[in-house]
Amino acid sequence: MDTINQILKQYWHHDTFRPLQEDIINAVLEGKDTLALLPTGGGKSICFQVPALMKEGICLVISPLIALMKDQVQNLKNKGINALSIYSGMSFLEVKNTLQNAAYGNYKFLYVSPERLETNLFLDYLPNMNINLIAVDEAHCISQWGYDFRPPYQRIAQLREYLPNTPILALTASATIEVQNDICEKLQFGKNQQRFQQSFARPNLSYSIFNVPSKQNKLLEILTNVKGSAIVYCKSRRHTKDVADLLLMNKINASYYHAGLSNEERNKRQEDWITNKTRVMACTNAFGMGIDKPDVRVVVHYEVPDCLENYYQEAGRAGRDGKRAYAVLLYNSKEIADLQLQTNIRYPDREEIKKVYTAVMNHLQIAAGSGEGISFDFDIGVFATAFKLNILTATYAIKTLEQESILSFNNIFFKPSTILFTIDKDELVDFEQHNPQLEPVIKGLLRSYEGIFDFATTINEAQLANFIQKKLPDVVLQLQKLHQLGVINYAHRKDKPQITLFQNRMYADSFVINLADYLKRKQNFDTRVQAITKYVQQTIMCRSRMIAAYFNDKNVKACGICDNCINQNDLVISTEEFEMIATKIFEEITLSPLVPKDLIKKLSGIKKEKFWKVADYLQAEKKIIVSKSGAMEKA
Predict the structure, then answer these.
(1) Which of 63, 154, 502, 551 could be joined to 137 by an S-S link, Cβ 3.0–4.6 Å?
(2) Nearest to 416 by CA among 448, 377, 457
(3) What is the mean predicted confidence (pLDDT) over 261-281?
(4) Domain spanning 4-197, CATH class
(5) Which fold has domain 205-331?
(6) Alpha-carbon distance 403 to 421, whole Å?
């Protein structure tokens, strides 16, 4: 059998692994449940791809991102490794064939979304798949205490019933210690579980923050001074276009990207940027996941992100080639004030949630005690206007109902057309004789799609029209006619937002959500807001160390290249003054631990900047420590 180094060399052409990759792979090969925290661009995929290739069977990869699935499957195929994926929009027959290949074919990887694991079709084929490893990508989505909670992720552990001896590898780029613990608990990790956390330090990445009166001028200055590929993250779709237009007006080659563009347009713009036909991409956070472009020289955040988790991942797309790169955040004071208000906006009180829930049920005309499993077109703008609701309140109340597994709301949704014959083959022959004008479309259906008498089958009207050489509008009209005559059940494609109910409508006096969990999620969101606010407003502490400490990485030293480090390097302290300040710090914290604010007050006459320079050094040298409450004390 090949060694892991031979596999790395054969398929990836690398001689050595990156830090921790080899340790993670060995833990997986030993059959241990493993949690791996590797920064953006840290090589997470190799951690499950190499051990899966070492073992007999197929690796089940669970990912929430269709683009990422397709990208990784194509990359594996390019290496000569057989891989499969199942994603929304595939026909029943396509899904069935894929599962058959996974169960009986010579394939090494099957990529699926967490929702797919619960379908009867998947569970029917699961016993015949020789699954050697379960890899859970974006594992932070499991924890409701994290920043990107997705309820279907919490049901992944149900696979343990079918695969009790198969190890699980959970991977994420960013998770606090509380979220790490929750991931391991929710996935039912065994006693011999292992955790690996790569350093959050990025020694080649310079973080800086600017509070500026004109973001436009500052952005132009940054992109003029820093040559090369760039990303500008914006919070709204409108801003992406505004920023791209600004750059184009100033002769900087730019484009914009957001989820509202068509798949074809998004793919083209992404490819143009990857191949450097476009220099700057102005985008929402829909851009960047799974893109491995090493030569990004600068990532600019045009507004303050919601949390350090998002900021670290997005900023980390700069400088993956190890060369100097820059992560710049632009903000103004109003943004910070608005951010402080977000907690109550995003987490409305229980009565407000109940009010929105009742309005949704009334809007959909659902009677109490019914509705489970039914999907509806749902335009949230029309809904909010009709019931005189604030659209933000309605949006976040519906998100809460999603997290409580009461319903799901797909804002960007595509459901292909389906057809099922409702009469048997003998009746169909008789029908064709009496309706010869409909015979071509019937024959086209029978020749194009298998199983169309047994289950609702996904069809493509344009392909059918081409096959029978008819105009598309005529084919759609004939399908509708067959539906009206009771020959087929024809569900025309949907490309509108959809709400799906997971349970019957609750009676007014029995509306219930898990209030304790909801309030804890609210508190955790507020904690994340305070952390990003502190990060933005801090002018002394090393930014790289602040980020690392947030993710429980306590051993990162000052980077020397962020804006705060550079400013502190300009602050000269003599050896005598340094020793004097250090002595006074020790005297005060020996009497009792003190938070920095109170400690600075006691050290009257010492500049705050000099205090922090000495305190940072003492903490880096582990001569003082900071407790969970934030108090400094002697080590």
Answers:
(1) 63
(2) 457
(3) 91
(4) alpha beta
(5) Rossmann fold (3.40.50)
(6) 37
In whole angstroms, give the CA distance from residue 343 to residue 351: 16
Question: Does the pLDDT value for residue 607 go beyond 90?
Answer: no
Over range 178-203, report the average pLDDT. Answer: 94
Q: Within its chain, how far is the Cα of 233 from the centroid?
A: 15
- Distance CA(392)–CA(519), nearest Å, equals 19
Name the architecture of domain 339-414+496-521. Orthogonal Bundle (1.10)
Average pLDDT for 546-574: 87
| Strand partners for 205 | 325
Question: 357-387: per-residue pLDDT in tens?
Answer: 999 999 999 999 999 988 888 988 899 999 9
DSSP 140: G
Instruction: Give the torsion through C-alpha atoms of 589, 594, 600, 604, to 10 deg.
Output: -60
CB atoms within 10 A of CB 265: 12
C-alpha to C-alpha distance for 492 and 419, rounded to whole angstroms: 9
Q: For the chain, give the mean pLDDT.
A: 91
Mean pLDDT of 296-311: 96
pLDDT at 73: 92
Give the angle 490-495-500 at the CA atoms, nearest 5°. Answer: 80
| CATH T-level assignment (fold) for domain 571-635 | Arc Repressor Mutant, subunit A (1.10.10)
Q: What is the 3-state secondary structure (H, E, C) of 221-287?
A: HHHHHCCCEEEEECCCHHHHHHHHHHHHHCCCCEEEECCCCCHHHHHHHHHHHHCCCCCEEEECCCC
Distance CA 386, CA 401 (A): 20
**Span 283-296, mean pLDDT?**
85
Residue 138 near residue 64, CB atoms below 8 Å? yes
Residue 16's Cβ-count burial label (10 Å; 0-12, 13-18, 19+) is: exposed
Helix residue ranges, H only, 453-514:
461-468, 472-484
HSE at residue 231, side-chain half, CA atoms within 13 A, is 32
Q: Do domains 4-197 and 339-414+496-521 have the same CATH topology?
A: no
CA–CA separation, 22 vs 36, rounded Å? Answer: 12
Position 125 pLDDT exceeds 80: yes
Domain chopping of the chain, boundaries: 4-197, 205-331, 339-414+496-521, 418-491, 571-635
The residue ranges of DSSP E strands in 521-629, in sequence order, are 624-626
Q: Please list the alpha-helical segments (H only) found in 291-349.
A: 308-315, 333-346
